[in-house]
What does this fold into?
Amino acid sequence: MSFSHYRSRPTRTVVRYFDLIILIPNLIFLLFLIIKWYHTRTKLNFNKPLLFTVSCLIFIVSFVNIIRCLYSMIFAEQTSYAIGIILKILWLLVRFTLLCTELSLLVFGIYFGRSNPNRPWIKTIKILIISSICSLIYTITQGVLEFRGDTRPSSFQLTNYNLYSYGGMKFLLISSSIFLLMYIIIFFLPILCRQHRKFLPIRRSFYIYCFIMAIINGIQIIGTILNLTETTKFAMW
It folds into this structure.
């Protein structure tokens, strides 16, 4: 048995397990959304654009992630260049929908957090357009880095494991730091802007959301720093 054949067997198994770990929660969550929509379909109407838009965004994120997982699992044993390209595009599409949803929720919380403005549908569409443009710029930048070279961590570059690498550890570190700073500033806005507190969101859940997102980005920063440190040591040896 050759070394390449021996190496490819665990690689395919890991990919299936990895995709299965992502697929099962997304399927459960999608089922939850469908059941929730069935029971609250009277509330999800065009008279409440914010609730309707958020539900659609979350549904799209879950659906796109399921499609990516299924595609990766179906073609797990094939390692052609075209399949790898399509898989990267699906990963980038997942990232685009996630970031667009994240930014939209953030702006919705700030803009609609105090009161319901006039013409909410127009305001909602404007926010979606702005979030989509920002997410598209981010995703294109990440896609250029992804396709320009192997941006996976050094421990994965010797395998066939098609790992989603977020455009490389340096790009992930920079972007996570920016998002962390943004969420920290928004979280402390009631303290930093006491004179304009009447214009800030009043829902505590919004600030809890910002706090959780700050923690997630902080964990990503720690992970990328550790990975970059490990890569530096690996290069020195």
Notes: Confidence is low (pLDDT under 50) at residues 1-14, 233-237.
